[in-house]
Design brief:
This protein has about 290 residues and is an alpha+beta fold. Helices cover about 35% and strands about 15% of the residues. Strands 4, 5, 6, 7, 8 and 10 form a six-stranded mixed β-sheet that branches. The longest helix is centred in the N-terminal third of the chain and has 17 residues, at about 5-20. It is elongated.
Length: about 290
């Protein structure tokens, strides 16, 4: 039978193995949370440890500051304060962003079903209630991007539950877009769609014509491989040129365009500027 001391020894061995592969580990206590800060580091009185590459003013030898304590330095991992933590640890975690990885944490069967239908296949690791999908590439971590789905990457930690199975896929805009879609794209009232023409008649044959045009615009933005700024502006200009005068272009349509642009890295401010510039170019800014 495996004794607790053997499990703890395995935690240290696992951590050293991860570090040797460039994956920065840290110990987890009961409850799957990092160890709390020592008295000197309480409330970040020491100045904190802001990220992996720039440790900052804190030189605490203990595993303080949560995810920021993760390290690939075997001397730190095997030091006396860390060995003390490993003896009490209930598990091993790692900082995905520090290893250039992103973990999509799927917490239940429904989330797994959604991922299989919506995300690129990649390496998977079984968890207690769901799965971790691991992608090559880092992004900002975020919790609750949709029901049962968290993103663990930069400034976050994930439990180490083994190497998993399958080929690791490069992080794509589909995964990055999950954090953008947490809230509606920010758009001031001044960039709402133009009002209808004087006779109020829509020249489009059916609403499907507009929906198809918006879908094509989204695809054009999504597939841009370079000059994303210019592509966004030209796409906004084309949409407004075709649909901007009849009044059937709604906030829901333009929100779809903003979301597609933000998923490619555009800021809400740039989206607003591009939209406003397109309105001005077409002489629609006065409406």
């Amino acid at each position: 039978m495996t004794q607790p001391t053997d499990i703890r020894r395995d935690h240290l061995a696992t951590a050293l193995s991860l570090a040797a592969r460039g994956v920065p580990p840290l110990p987890l206590r009961v409850g799957k949370v990092p160890f709390g800060n020592c008295p000197t580091c309480a409330r970040n009185a020491c100045g904190g440890r802001p990220n992996m590459k720039t440790p900052g003013p804190c030189t605490c030898p203990q595993p303080c500051h949560g995810w920021a304590a993760a390290t690939t330095d075997p001397r730190v991992i095997s030091s006396t304060p860390w060995v003390r933590a490993w003896r009490e640890a209930a598990g091993v975690a790692y900082h995905p962003g520090g290893a250039g990885l992103t973990v999509v944490d799927l917490d239940n069967a429904e989330a797994i079903a959604w991922a299989r239908a919506s995300l690129p296949a990649t390496r998977t690791v079984p968890t207690t209630r769901g799965e971790h999908w691991i992608y090559r590439g880092a992004m900002q971590g975020a919790n609750g991007v949709r029901p049962g789905v968290d993103i663990k990457s930069t400034m976050a930690y994930a439990r180490w539950l083994g190497p998993g199975t399958g080929t690791m896929t490069v992080l794509t805009h589909v995964v990055r877009a999950l954090t953008v879609k947490q809230s509606a794209p920010a758009r001031p009232a001044s960039v709402t769609a133009p009002t209808p023409t004087s006779d109020g008649q829509c020249p489009h044959r059916t609403p499907t014509y507009l929906d198809r045009g918006i879908a094509m615009a989204e695809q054009r933005i999504t597939e841009a491989r370079s000059a994303v700024h210019a592509t966004v502006y030209r796409t906004f200009l084309a949409v407004l040129s075709t649909h901007g005068r009849c009044g059937c272009l709604t906030d829901a349509h333009t929100a779809r365009l903003f979301t597609a642009a933000q998923a490619r890295g555009e800021s809400a401010r740039h989206c607003t500027d591009a939209w406003t510039n397109a309105l001005t170019t077409l002489g629609l800014s006065h409406v």
